[in-house]
Each structure stands twice: as C-alpha cells, then as structure tokens.
Design goal:
Strands 8, 9, 10, 11, 12 and 13 form a 6-stranded mixed beta sheet that branches. A 5-stranded mixed beta sheet has the order 5-1-6-14-7. The chain is α/β, with parallel strands linked by helices. The protein is built from 12 helices and 14 strands. Bound molecules: arginine (ARG). Arginine (ARG) binds next to strand 2.
Amino acid sequence: MKKIWKKLALIAGCVMMMSMFAACGGGKDENTIVFGTNAEFPPFEFVAANGVIGEYDGIDMAIAKNIGDALGKNVKIENMEFDSLLLALENGQVDAVIAGMTIDPERADAVNFSTPYYTAKQVMIVKEDSTIAKAADMADKKIVVIQGYTGESCVKEMKYEYEAFKKGSEAIMELVNGKCDVVVIDSATAKKYVGDNEGLKIVEDAEAFSSEEYGIAVNKKNTELTIRERMAGMWFWRAMSIFTTSAMICAPRLSASLNTKEEAAARLRFSLIAPPPLPFLFCHSTSAKSLLSVKEMV
Ligand code: ARG
C-alpha cells in the first residue's frame, strides 16, 4: 500500500515538473509563437495604445500576426533590448526574432534568416541648416548611432568617432537639442523621425552606405523551420513550387545538378520550406486592422 502512495507521489511530482517546464522556457506553449523584438523602431515596431498585437504596433507586428494567423497560433511579443535579441533566440527564450533586423554575414553565422522582406539603407539625419551633404562630411562632426544597429558598424568601419545611444528616440532628441550633428540610422525609421520632428532632414549617400535587407531570424537548431515551413504552407507558394519543380522534372537535363527525380524531389522539399514573398503575406491577412495599419505606415 505504501508503495502505491510512493509511486503516486512520484508520478504527481513528474507531472508537476513537466508542467513547470512547459510554462517556462524549453517546452513553451505549443499554441503560441513567441517573437522577440525591440519596439523602438518605427514604423516596424513601436509601442502604441492599441497595437496590432497588444501594445505593439508596426509593420513587423503585422507580419508576426499574419504568421500566427496562418499557423492558427497565438502570437506573443517579448520586447527587449536590440542587443539581446539573438541571444534570446539562441537560448530558446523566443521562437523567432522580428525586429527590422538586417541580414548580415556575422548574424547569419549564428541564426537562420528568412528570405528578405524589406530593403533599407543607412541614412544621415541632420538639422535642416546642416552643411553635411555626404558621409565624408561627418569626419569632424559629433555623430550619434544606436547601439548594436548596423548604422553603428557602418560608422565604425568609416573609422569616425561616435556616441552610441540605446534608443533611436534618444538619439533624435540629442540632435533636436543641438547636442550632436548627425544621427545615422535606417532609412524608413529616419523618415518617420524626420516627419515627427520639425527642423530635421535626411541626407543620403548611396556610395558610402550600401543597401541592407531585413529578415526574420530563427534558431539554427530549429531544423523543422516551423515558421518558415508553415508560412510556405500557403497554397500559392506550394502551387508555385510544384509548378516550377514539375517543369524541372519534365524538362530533360535542365540543369546538371537536377538530373534525377530524387534531386528534383529534394529541391521541391527545399522550396517548400522557403517563405513566400512578403506582399503575399500581407494579402493573406485575416486581420483587417493590421492590414490597414501597414498601409498607413508604408
Ligand atoms: N536594421 C538595423 C539592424 O539590423 C536596425 C534594426 C533595429 N531594430 C529594432 N527593432 N530596434 O541592425
């Protein structure tokens, strides 16, 4: 009799422990995708009274919501410092990072990126009467960047001295108050800041700053590529993949690397896990509200 009680107690203990694991980290709630972001990057993510996902609004939040809708899952946002995002992804605190994050080789070494969904470039925000007309003019000026952003790497590469702030809004205040001469930041965000603050303008230098592409990041260990796979589950993308692959199978020796049906099938499997283009995601929105706010923002 005593043994039975012991066994029951053991089982109860195990169940309790398992539900604890399910509640925190590791085995997260199966029905929820946790997206990490840094909601300091309008129009991609920012805090608003009535956002697309709770208090979070912006283009990325609309995309995250679309992914959740396509998967039939809830979407949760973990707002943290930009610098902490990839670490949070690597240690499983979040399932994906959606943060206007530029795909760069160093980051791509640590995490997997979706196909790009937005092309941006670094620009300079200056006062309207500034003499800065190209990147080289920043040489003897007080430059402000945002910590961990690609803008910081660009200025670092140019070997200019700079000060790094944690938030774009703080950097802009510094400029508005005349405490610095230029802020280097991503183009769409710059446009938003210049629209919201009087007396500022954007200076571009396409030769000094090359274009960048944003992607959604997932953990490299996420071999199932859950999100990408399910995103690709949309009929349009599947139909496209099947069409192109069957065209490949039918066309004799179309490419040297695709001679056999097996290879073609492997290619098909690969194309199924690649995400569809962004506009399609938008078209597929089940949330009129998120579509509307995206339209207003871009
Ligand atoms: N595109 C830049 C980068 O990847 C800045 C991104 C900032 N994003 C944000 N959510 N704060 O470094």
